[in-house]
Amino acid sequence: MYWSLSLTKEFSPLPQTFYLRNTLLVAKSLLGKGLFLSHKKNNFLCQIVEVEAYLGKEDPASHAFKGPTPRNLSMFKMGGTCYVYLSYGLNYCMNVVTGIEGTGNAVLIRAAIPLLGLEIMAKNRSISRPLTKKGLKNLLSGPGKITQALGIDRNFDGLSFDQSTFKIVDLNHEIPKHQIGLSPRIGISKAKEENFRFYIKQSEFLSRPDRA
Predict the structure, then answer these.
(1) Are 85 and 92 in contact (CB under 8 A)?
(2) Is the backbone of residue 118 left (phi > 0), alpha (psi -120 to 50) or beta?
(3) Looking at CB atoms within 10 Å, which of 31, 98, 133, 210 has the fewest?
(4) Do 205 and 49 contact (CB within 8 A), yes or no?
(5) CA 11 from chain center: how many Å?
(6) What is the pLDDT of residues 59-73, one digit of tens each?
(7) Which residues lie closer than 8 Å to 158 by C-beta, 6 or more apart?
(8) Cα 61 vs. chain centroid, distance in angstroms?
(9) pLDDT tens-digit profile of 73-126?
(10) CA torsion, points 95, 50, 184, 189, in degrees to nearest 10?
């Protein structure tokens, strides 16, 4: 609908050095970037508009706060690794690991704009087609919606975002600092006061309305 597959395949994955920086900086820098996935003969592209940062052993809200476990082991890999977990036994959530190996930092992808593969995304989410304007805005407006729409599950846990079929790319759409909003993270019970949620202001695709 918005992008051609041939054009999307030409984009190179972001270099690993992108992910080895400060986690809050990486989180803000992910806004506007593209997530490309080719899976089961389906091709998807979406543009990230909302994220949350989790700061490892220093962050009580992070899965890594108490150290490595079988569930969160991918969080302690090198930056640029995908960490997927099942939330409350219902929805998978996808994170981008940051920093050097062993730190346990990650950025949760909360919302995105669908750019390629919309019909299959809608089918995976059991949304009526053709998509209405409301349906389009709702397609990827939450971390569980993103994984469901793209068919992402625990099989993606531990993969790196530098593959030809699974990559985060630069869409040449830089987000100015004044367009980046921040707020406390959503749906957590600890460290609720930290403004570690970053989003593109006035985007219609956010998981929560922009009150700024």
Answers:
(1) yes
(2) alpha
(3) 133
(4) yes
(5) 18
(6) 999 999 999 999 999
(7) 73, 74, 77, 81, 82, 83
(8) 18
(9) 999 999 999 999 998 778 999 999 999 999 999 999 999 999 999 999 999 999
(10) -40
Structural domains in the chain, sorted by start: 5-200 (3.10.300.10)
Token pair, residue 86, equals: 């099942």
The SS3 assignment for 171 reads coil
How far apart CA 19 and CA 95 sit, in angstroms, is 12
Beta bridge partners of 35: 46, 168
E strands of 26-127, at which residues?
34-39, 42-55, 82-87, 91-98, 105-116
CA 51 to chain centre: 6
| Helix count and strand count (H, E) for the chain | 6, 9
